[in-house]
Structure formats: structure tokens, C-alpha cells
Specification:
By secondary structure, the chain is mainly beta. Helices cover 12% and strands 41% of the residues. It contains three helices and eleven strands. The strands form three sheets. A five-stranded antiparallel sheet has the order 2-3-1-4-5, with no helix packed on it. It has a four-stranded antiparallel sheet with strand order 6-8-9-10, with no helix packed on it. The chain is elongated and about 50 Å long.
Length: 152
Amino acid sequence: MEKKQYSVEAIQNGTVIDHIPAGKGLAILRQFKLLHYGSAVTVGFNLPSKTQGSKDIIKITGVWLDAAAADRLALFAPEAVVNVIEDFKVVSKRRLTMPSEISEVFRCPNTNCASHGEPVKSRFYVRTQNGQTRLKCHYCEKTFSRESVAEA
């Protein structure tokens, strides 16, 4: 029987974020501050994927994402899967659900928005239209494509 070889080493306990669209891994590392835990982090970029062609993958030892963080991840990588690893085995897989509202993650692109001049936290309502993620600012009520909204 042929032994399967992985491009990124297995971890004993922690979280694996798999099926990240190629090129999005760094944004996820930054946004979720995955390097701030002091844990070992293994990242693979542009790895072969049967379903996506190529993908990124992030493995973090001793760190688990709660449901809210996992669903926030859907804004960056909707097709990603969060795997919980215990003793080198996948004990659960979480498919992501797009949150209905998100705060303190993105900046409103509207320079006239109150969120730019006032001491308020950014807040968006998340909607999906025709397969596209749209964010509606709570303050100025303008709607933007996910790609046009910068990270805070």
C-alpha cells in the first residue's frame, strides 16, 4: 500500500484551517493574529487541491477557534474548513457559516461615514447576493462588495 505524504507536517493537537483560497493565507494570519499565541504555526501556500486547483493551509498547535471566530473566517475564505485535531486525528470538522453582522474587522470605504471621524467601532451587516458577499455599513447605510472593504 502506498504511503500518503503531506506537503505540510501533521500536528498533534490544535486547529487546521484547510481549503483556504490560494493567496488568502497571509490575510487570515494577520486578521486572526494567529502568530500572537506563541504557538507553532505551519503555513502552506499554493498547495495542490483536487477541488480548488491550489489552496493555502494553516496549522496551529494548541489553539482552537471558537464558533464566532470560525464564522468570521467565512468573510475571508467561505469555502474553508476548520478541523479540530486531537492526538494527530481530526475529531471535528466545521463548515463555515457567514455571520449576519460583523464588528471591528473592516473599515467603511465611505470617507464621509461617521465611523471615520467619531469614536465608534465599525459595524457591518453581511448579506450574500448572487453568490457575492456584500457588507452594509451600520452608520452610513451604504453597501459595498466584500473585496472593496479594507481590513481595520
